[in-house]
């Protein structure tokens, strides 16, 4: 999504070089860490730069406002999962549909395992700071990967049901993972979450087979 242009008129630095990129990541990381302990409204730019170890002017070289920083964090975290799903699909094409779906579920879960307590605030933030168009664009990227997974399976379902199935699988995965992050935080039962995700996905896939039959 394209961040809205706010703040100082001076063009903000594009974090192309390694050092610049690390500075941008430090600001993003500080923001997410603060969100894990405070409500969004309580997190100030001053607190972000203090935790990141950068100056206030440096913040505005990269982000025009706290709202823009929030949108960038949401976009980049979703992008990392999408890219991991692409890598998984490149390796799994032609396998049975259940195996491909299980692999993609694992990709999604693994991206939340290291710091689950930081994902709950991100999902809450997404619901308040992603406009409908931006949200639909992001969601559509995930749905496109599920469509590709279904069409590339050895036992691919009929093309007429692929779009509906892709939307449903994304709803299952996004819904259960985001709820676990918001409700359980760092106490997520990951084996139990995997069991619920696979059970729900497998049960739905079985209905596709019944319709094809």
SSE topology sketch:
Layout (H helix, E strand, L loop, with lengths): L17 H18 L9 H8 L3 H7 L3 H27 L4 H17 L2 H14 L2 H20 L7 H26 L5 H23 L1
Helix pairs in contact: 1-2, 4-5, 4-6, 4-7, 5-9, 6-8, 7-8, 8-9
Keywords: DNA-binding
InterPro entries: Homeodomain-like_sf (IPR009057), HTH-type_Tx_Regulator (IPR050624), HTH_TetR (IPR001647)
Pfam families: TetR_N (PF00440)
What does this structure look like?
The protein is an all-alpha fold and 213 residues long. The protein has a domain at 73-212: Tetracycline Repressor, domain 2, CATH 1.10.357. It has nine helices and no strands. The chain has helices at 18-35, 45-52, 56-62, 66-92, 97-113, 116-129, 132-151, 159-184, 190-212. Helix 4 packs antiparallel against helix 5, helix 4 (66-92) packs across helix 6 and helix 6 (116-129) crosses helix 8 (159-184). The relative contact order is 0.11.
